[in-house]
Write a structure and sequence with these properties.
By secondary structure, this protein is mainly alpha-helical. It has one domain: Rossmann fold (3-Layer(aba) Sandwich), CATH 3.40.50. The chain has 7 helices and 5 strands, in the order αβαβαβαααββα. Strands 2-1-3 form a 3-stranded parallel β-sheet, with helices on both faces. Strands 4-5 form a two-stranded parallel sheet. α3 (53-63) crosses α5.
Length: 177
């Protein structure tokens, strides 16, 4: 491993402040990431000082190694543009940034934006702009390292399966006939 690979990956969690249960699930998920070596940015962990949230969102999203959009019906409505303009304004701002990043440089940002499906949620709640069926998404089966194995591997660059060593090509004599 080189020095860059030993650094903790950073992740920005993008989600809608929905029900109390959903907010707690996202908080528990963020704690799971932190406990497993992923430096996690969550709006609820920022200082209590007044801030310009849009400036904060842009800075944090573009600084992070990865952006983790959390699937939910409300998040889907926000990102796909069907949510009322006066609802979920923080997520609306995050949606603007996500759409701009993907539009400006899709090859770069597609590999950095990893949609997450938490327990109790569905792939069908991933916004269309994030390609729920034609690009990878990460299902967290339970809030444990084992339940988040696929995502933790993606964040840390540790593949689950490695190819066997490359063998030697056999010498194949020509056929005579």
């Amino acid at each position: 491993m080189n020095a860059e690979e030993t650094l903790s990956p950073t992740a920005f969690i993008s989600y809608v402040h929905g029900s109390a249960r959903h907010k707690q699930l996202v908080l528990d998920f963020a704690r799971l990431l932190q406990e497993n070596g992923v430096t996690t940015t969550l709006d609820r962990w920022t200082t209590v000082r007044r801030k310009d949230w849009y400036t904060w969102i842009v800075a944090e999203m573009t600084r992070a190694d990865f952006i983790l959009p959390i699937a939910s019906k409300s998040y889907q409505a926000v990102l796909d543009g069907s949510a009322p303009g006066d609802k979920h304004r923080g997520a609306q701002a995050e949606a603007l940034v996500l759409r701009e990043l993907l539009y400006a440089d899709r090859p770069r940002w597609l590999s950095k934006i990893l949609p997450v499906v938490l327990p109790g949620r569905s792939v069908s709640e991933i916004p269309l702009v994030l390609q729920p069926h034609t690009a990878d998404h990460y299902r967290v089966k339970e809030l444990t390292a084992a339940g988040a194995d696929e995502l933790l591997r993606a964040l840390s660059g540790q593949p689950k399966h490695l190819p066997p060593p490359l063998g030697t090509l056999p010498v194949l004599p020509p056929l005579t006939s």
